[in-house]
Design brief:
The protein is of the alpha/beta class. Helix content is about 40%, strand content about 20%. The protein contains four helices and six strands, in the order βαββαβαββα. Strands 1, 2, 3, 4, 5 and 6 form a six-stranded parallel sheet that branches. Helix 2 links the parallel strand 3 and strand 4. Helix 1 crosses helix 4. The mean pLDDT is about 95.
Amino acid sequence: MQTVNIVYGTVYGAAQFTAETINTAIADLGYTARLLHPVDLASFTPPQDELLIIVSSTTGQGDVPDDILPWFSQLQSQAPYSPKLRFSIVGLGDSSYENFCGAADQLEELFIELGAQALTETLKIDACETMEPEQEASQWISVWHGAAQSLDAA
């Protein structure tokens, strides 16, 4: 089974809890799951032979959370070409704001610019519809797992 790196950016902790839930579910499926905290990202460039899941809340006017902004900016400036990297993004947001899940959109755009390919469509979890984003993310794991298995079969 492949290694799955799980990165999160959070403001109030919901994205961290959601990432921890995903980490446990991925490990239960037999993958080597590695949860990277924002402080671990200073020199982290996602390996192309591993999978990446990013869980991020949105802050301000659709901005990337401050705790992963340095990593985001580093990847933007270094622009490591990553055509074999497969990624998935889980965005937490509030649809009553103009830039719903804006951080997730920015992260997706960045990784596409780096040449990486989305493994799944971005999951956008709306705080107006669910109080427990980790539950919606847990249900999404089956979609993610099906996509990851199709890579293994290829």
